[in-house]
Write a structure and sequence with these properties.
single chain; mainly alpha; Tetracycline Repressor, domain 2; 13 helices; 78% helix; globular
């Protein structure tokens, strides 16, 4: 049983939840104007971890046959047979039940909006079969994390006061979409040969890398607008300066002819970016409150 749990956690790369959590926390503390109640923070954390588990399990199940044919992904637990589809299904159902509980505990609106969120959490796994916009569908799905946290704290999403949540959604959508473009470059030939829709396969790697840089520039625009709308203090500006430098570093690590440092760009740099964003927002709110 312990081995099954361990293999399932490896299947969904559970440790990468730490990379995604800062998105939700930014939406949470902005909505609260500081730290929310500990109960809200707890259930937002549970909802974020379980939502990511549902999404990753759905993705691995949907792609298991494709992954098995791709030399880069053939060693993944489900594709290689180390984890059975039954184990993945059980894990995803348990995670879904926990997500439902968390949404219920967070209030009526989070529970009401959950079916729409699930449409993207599960549906994005199939996007690359039908559209090369799949990178930005993934980004939008990740962007639901800060929006969900905002809704959990504020209980609203469709008023002018909720504009910061939408700016966060825009920022995360193009940011994640931008670095998914970089990540997809290593599978350009495989995607093209297997009729999978991805921008590197459809338009070429140099075009994908240029579009990734443009996407990250747009993400910075959304984050600047967030600072203006929310009147965030000077630590936020310092944080954005650091994030801009990290994004430049990310794009220098990967070239059309060299993907040897792609994992550094994809995981390490972006993990630092997400944490930097959270810390800078938290510091700005602390100064404003003091």
């Amino acid at each position: 049983m312990l081995k099954g749990i361990r293999d399932f956690l490896e299947l969904i790369k559970f440790e990468h939840t730490l990379f995604a959590l800062p998105f939700a926390y930014v939406g949470m503390i902005l909505a609260a104007g500081g730290w929310p109640t500990w109960q809200q923070a707890l259930w937002i954390t549970v909802a974020m971890a379980s939502a990511r588990t549902v999404a990753m399990a759905a993705n691995r199940l949907a792609d298991r046959l494709i992954d098995a044919r791709n030399p880069r992904t053939a060693g993944r637990p489900l594709a290689s047979g180390r984890v059975s589809p039954g184990t993945a299904w059980v894990g995803s159902v348990v995670a879904l039940a926990i997500l439902l509980l968390a949404a219920w505990r967070l209030g009526p609106l989070p529970l009401k909006l959950l079916p729409a969120a699930l449409l993207f959490l599960i549906g994005y796994a199939f996007a690359k079969r039908v559209t090369w916009l799949s990178h930005y569908i993934l980004g939008f799905t990740d962007g639901l994390a800060p929006v969900g946290a905002w809704v959990a704290v504020r209980g609203s999403l469709f008023t002018l006061a909720d504009l910061p949540a939408w700016l966060l959604l825009g920022a995360v959508t193009v940011w994640i979409g931008g670095f998914d473009l970089i990540y997809a470059c290593q599978d350009a030939d495989f995607d093209r040969d297997n009729d999978l829709h991805a921008i590197p396969a459809r338009f070429g790697i140099p075009t994908a890398l240029r579009l990734s840089a443009i996407s990250h520039s747009v993400a910075m625009g959304f984050l600047i607008a967030l600072g203006v709308v929310h009147s965030l203090a000077w630590p936020y500006a310092l944080g954005l300066t650091a994030i801009a430098g990290l994004l430049l570093t990310e794009h220098r690590l990967v070239t059309p002819d060299d993907f040897s440092k792609l994992n550094v760009a994809f995981f390490n740099v972006n993990s630092v970016i997400s944490i930097t964003l959270f810390v800078s927002v938290a510091a700005a709110l602390t100064i404003a409150a003091g």
